[in-house]
TrEMBL record:
GO terms for molecular function: ATP binding; ATP hydrolysis activity; transmembrane transporter activity. CDD domains: ABC_MJ0796_LolCDE_FtsE. Residues 11-248 form the ABC transporter domain. GO terms for cellular component: membrane protein complex; plasma membrane. Keywords: ATP-binding, Nucleotide-binding, Transport. This is Peptide ABC transporter ATP-binding protein. InterPro entries: AAA+_ATPase, ABC_transporter-like_ATP-bd, ABC_transporter-like_CS, ABC_transpr_LolD-like, MacB-like_ATP-bd, P-loop_NTPase.
């Protein structure tokens, strides 16, 4: 076991291969990816459509299984867990934010935020959740339902929900994809503050160089492979790197 690495890893994949289907129609969505997501870091994943970003995220998060290779949350290898333990691990140690918010329409904001904890029969850390409500700026909306909120506000609820159980890592797939640039900026600022101020770990898939610039590091995928990584990204540098993909393809 590798427990002596300088940075603790919240999640990682080793030799990750994912093949969808078989025979002539088989698609190699991940073609041998090694990557780790250190604790307390905000990592963005970019790459052309179909390059394997969502697949990587889903496999790293235990929402899908690898064809070969291994995925870990902390020191726990996901492939070694049966369905029940995998479900518990996802519930207790992983948070998710999706492009389409995925709030429960019949529940209030407050109920949506604590839903994963309530389902788990956990009380959660009330002080933490209370602080989260302020971080996401929804104190005066707690008793509203999602249909009474703007898109940006709904996504802020989803962010609070993702962090409510103090997960080891939050995975976000295009969390700003349905938002205008101002609301998107607020959600990104939130994710960044969660990482900075509370030492959380965030992995975010995005197409948007401006969104990626909020991260500490950007990973670039192409054809199911990790082809580059960029520390301290700026939107301009990321855009330049993305253009190189377009020229090539
Ligand atoms: N369930 C599936 N069955 C078959 N092929 C799939 C499945 N999911 C994804 N793929 C294929 O795997 C490849 C990678 O898909 P993935 O969704 O990971 O790409 P992506 O980088 O997230 O793209 P996008 O930016 O468009 O969301 C694509 O060629 C896609 O068609
Ligand atoms: Mg995708």
């Amino acid at each position: 076991m590798t427990t002596t690495t300088a940075l603790r890893t919240a999640a990682r994949v080793v030799g990750a291969v994912k093949v969808y289907g078989g025979g002539d129609t088989a698609v190699r969505a991940l073609d041998g990816v090694d990557v780790d997501f250190p604790v307390g870091r905000f990592t963005a994943i970019m790459g052309p459509s179909g390059s394997g970003k969502s697949t990587l995220m889903h496999c790293a998060a235990g929402l899908d299984t690898l064809t070969s290779g291994a995925a870990y949350i902390g020191d726990t290898e996901l492939g070694a867990l049966d369905d029940r333990r995998l479900t518990l691990l996802r519930r207790d140690r992983v948070g998710f934010v999706f492009q389409a918010f995925n709030l429960v329409p019949t529940l209030t904001v407050a109920e949506n935020i604590t839903l994963p904890l309530d389902l788990a029969g956990r009380r959660g850390d009330r002080e933490w959740i209370d602080a989260l409500v302020d971080v996401v700026g929804l104190r005066d909306r707690l008793h509203h339902r999602p249909s009474e909120l703007s898109g940006g506000q709904q996504q802020r609820v989803a962010v609070a929900r993702a962090f409510a159980g103090r997960p080891d890592v939050v995975f976000a797939d295009e969390p700003t994809g349905n938002l205008d640039s101002r609301s998107g900026g607020e959600v990104l600022g939130l994710l960044r503050r969660a990482v900075r101020q509370t030492d959380r770990t965030v992995v975010m898939v995005t197409h948007d160089p401006v969104a990626a610039a909020h991260a500490d590091e950007v990973l670039f995928l192409a054809d199911g492979r990790l082809v580059d990584r960029m520390q301290s990204p700026t939107a301009d540098k990321v855009l330049d790197r993305m253009k190189a993909f377009e020229v090539r393809s």
